[in-house]
Write a structure and sequence with these properties.
heterotrimer; A mainly alpha (169); B alpha+beta (378); C alpha/beta (194); A: 169 residues; mainly alpha; Rossmann fold; 3-stranded parallel sheet; 5 helices; globular; C: 194 residues; alpha/beta; Beta Polymerase, domain 2; 5-stranded mixed sheet; two-stranded parallel ribbon
């Protein structure tokens, strides 16, 4: 057996294993992902005020399994885009996203991150982040109340529950 | 060295001891901006702030909207201090149109703006706590500020983006029974923030980390044109509420806080002392406020300035002097709106403060400038 | 589109002149005393090289040619005790073919000036097709006199294309690194859909 053949064989074996694992273990794997979502610490605009308020004692997003924003993006699997993305920020945002390990999820928070919001006609603001990142959940508002953000996070958890775990195993 | 390369690509000979470090925009100690620092070992030898990650062109867009539709727009730079950031614009438009504001509206404005100053400062303090790794100091202010947000929500209908000030007064009168609730909550709030001394301001660890770091002398503070808490921490007694009283600040009883040290500790203490003064102002304003009366002068739809005119108004916001320069040319839209914000003016001090500091002191020095990047970039 | 807006602006200017002509005689009656004295001291020193545009309560505005701006600013700092610049704004006047740069000066050290803002305005030539840094839109930098204008002048450079001669650090500040369009706060830069 040549090395090339061996590689193909191992790859096929991996595919078969993934398929076999997904049915019985997929639910358990996703369950683990749901309750420890680590948001990456990146602020892009003024919605970060309400993101901070969501971690405060009154709203306490941590009780739903969303842990406070964390510094090292190598350990994060959630990126909450907190508001306006300017043309200067967009490449950096993509760079941050690319460095995060799979699986990773994106929440677009605030009207600016969804469509550009109040800044729809500004020269330096992107009309929504759809062109930069694949968004999982949109949280509308300008800025969204912390309750809205928490609901968005719970919708994301619902979504993860129904996702296939196989893709990232 | 290959001389044919364009200058941007040519390898530059760097002193091997000096390392260039990009801090931010994704960094827990940078906020929405990038700070490029050069370090020699652990000491910062040069620093170059690189703002502009939230530059949204507010000033350009204000030229395309009329005077009233600019209101929700121009409060977005600092949403948690939105009454104060809107204040100079509203005062400026009133001067352009020649409107006199009812007495009760002036008091409501002062109360709203002081409540907002506390809300802003509490958020700033929470982030300062987290920058220093002091989790209690994140949780306490972030929880206590909700009290005042509740008050503002009762008053204006929104948590942070109030759009409450309009040329000619305020949008709504106070809700029924507001004075009593406000007094009770402000008294409780003042009691709470006094407890912060024990856990934060008298904490020897905080003092060890912030005292004598990033010292700004009085001469430098004046020369660099800094403002707000940075200026008052360096021993210059300059508070626009006293020096150029707008609305009814000249009738209210309060004092300004000045410290002489000019280090990070003094800069972080001034906003906390200011909050206690804000509580005094609110109590006094509630007492002196006329119990009834109009709160808003009706304007003609689509107001216009009178010919070519310009006005520069300034107020004391949570981050210092906040000026608004409006040029009108007689059309319904302003010809030019410029916000001269405290954050942008204080940013110039950062390279001076960081030079010679240790890298570990960078977050505490940076955030003690009372800096809000979204406002600086506009 | 551009011709329309030009016409409108010309109209408004012609509208503005009679209004200001009406207002000025009223103003002379109620000129505030201290501010008038301040303006008189500057006029006494520089005579016809400067023009006092208005004297309002707490605000005095002086228009200066670009050759004299450094000298006037030095006088304001050394003799009149204005020690910092609060704000530097640019205003674009396409119909005059000029860009105005407005310095708002204040004072921390002199208690009598703590309410005062002195507005120092100067104008630079405006180019139809700007090449920021390499055309005639240039002004002397005031950084040597008022240190606090450093970042403000960098902002004006990128937003209006006004190059400040003598500024040590004429780089971009807020705009993206790859910005290749017109300086955005000029009036001929149109934003989306407007």
């Amino acid at each position: 057996m040549t090395p090339q053949n061996a590689n193909v064989f191992v790859g096929k074996l991996g595919d078969i294993l993934e398929k076999a694992i997904d049915k019985p273990l997929g639910y358990a794997i996703n369950w683990g992902r749901i309750w420890s979502l680590w948001p990456v610490h990146i602020e892009t605009a003024c919605c970060s005020v309400e993101f901070g308020a969501a971690s405060s004692p009154r709203y306490d997003v941590e009780r739903f399994g969303i842990i406070e924003a964390f510094g090292s993006l190598r350990q994060c699997d959630l990126i909450v885009v907190q508001g306006t993305i300017t043309r200067k920020m967009a490449p950096r945002l993509r760079l941050v996203y690319d460095q995060m390990p799979e699986p990773k999820y994106v929440i677009a928070m605030g009207a600016c991150a969804i469509t550009g919001g109040l800044y729809f006609d500004s020269y330096n603001v992107l009309p929504g982040i759809d062109g930069v990142l694949p968004v999982d959940v949109y949280v509308p508002g300008c800025p969204p109340r912390p309750e809205t953000l928490i609901q968005g996070c719970m919708l994301l958890q619902e979504k993860i529950k129904r996702m296939k775990a196989r893709k990232y195993v | 060295m290959n001389k044919e390369l364009p200058p941007g690509l040519a390898l530059q000979k760097v002193d091997e001891r000096i390392m260039t470090l990009n801090v931010g925009p994704q960094h827990p100690g940078s906020g929405h901006m990038r700070i490029i620092v050069q370090i020699d070992g652990d000491f910062i030898v040069a620093c170059d702030p690189d703002p502009g990650y939230v530059h949204r062109g507010e000033e350009k867009m204000a030229e395309y909207r009329n005077y009233i539709t600019n209101i929700p727009h121009l409060e977005r730079p600092v949403i948690h201090d939105s009454c104060n950031v809107l204040y100079p614009y509203v005062l400026g438009v009133e001067e352009l149109l020649g409107i006199e504001v009812p007495e009760r509206a002036k008091y409501i404005r002062v109360i709203a703006s002081e409540l907002n100053r506390c809300v802003y400062t509490m958020y700033w303090l929470a982030i300062y706590g987290i920058f220093l790794g002091h989790s209690t100091m994140f949780m306490w202010p972030a929880g206590d500020r909700e009290l005042l947000i509740d008050l503002l929500e009762k008053m204006t209908g929104a948590r942070v983006t109030h759009a409450h000030f309009v040329p000619g007064g305020v949008r709504n009168d106070l809700p029924p029974n507001f004075e009593d609730v406000c007094l009770r909550q402000v008294n409780y709030f003042e009691k709470r923030i006094k407890e912060y001394a024990a856990v934060f301001y008298d904490n020897p660890i905080l003092i060890a980390r912030t005292a004598n770091t990033g010292v700004l002398s009085r001469e430098d503070a004046i020369r660099l044109g800094t403002t707000g808490s940075v200026l008052r921490a360096s021993g210059v007694d300059y508070d626009l509420r006293k020096k150029e009283p707008y609305d009814v600040y000249d009738e209210l009883d309060f004092q300004t806080n000045v410290l002489k040290e000019g280090d990070s500790y003094a800069r972080s203490k001034i906003p906390w002392l200011d909050m206690m003064e804000s509580c005094r102002i609110i109590r006094h304003a509630l007492q002196k406020m006329p119990k009834s009366g109009s709160v808003r002068v009706k304007l003609k739809p689509n107001p216009k300035g009178k010919g070519l005119d310009s006005v520069y108004k300034r107020v004391e916001s949570g981050r210092g002097s906040l000026g608004c320069y409006i040029v009108s040319d007689g059309k319904p839209e302003p010809y030019r709106v410029k916000l001269s914000v405290g954050s942008f003016r204080n940013l110039i001090a950062l390279p001076y403060l960081l030079k010679g500091e240790k890298l570990g002191n960078m977050p505490s020095v940076y955030w003690s400038l009372n800096y809000w990047p979204v406002e600086a970039d506009r | 589109m551009s011709s329309d807006s030009d016409n409108e602006q010309i109209e408004t200017v012609s509208d503005a002149e009679p209004v200001s002509a009406k207002v000025t005689p009223e103003k002379e009656i109620e000129l505030p005393k201290f501010e008038k004295g301040l303006a008189d001291r500057i006029v006494e020193k520089f005579g016809t090289r400067i023009k006092v545009a208005f004297v309002k309560p707490d605000r005095v505005r002086i228009n200066v040619g670009k050759d004299d701006v450094k000298e006037v600013a030095g006088f304001l700092r050394d003799v009149l005790n204005f020690d910092h610049a609060e704000s530097v704004s640019g205003v674009d006047y396409p119909q005059d073919k000029e860009i105005e740069v407005v310095y708002h000066l204040g004072s921390y050290t002199d208690p009598s000036l703590s309410r005062q803002i002195l507005v120092l305005a100067t104008r630079a030539q405006r180019e139809e097709n700007p090449i920021p840094g390499n055309d005639a839109t240039k002004l002397p930098s005031l950084r040597e006199i008022f240190y606090s204008v450093e970042f403000h002048e960098r902002e004006i450079f990128e937003m209006f294309g006004v190059y400040f001669q003598g500024h040590p650090d004429n780089r971009r500040l807020l705009l993206p690194e790859d910005w290749a369009d017109l300086p955005p706060l000029r009036k001929d830069f149109a934003i989306k859909g407007r």
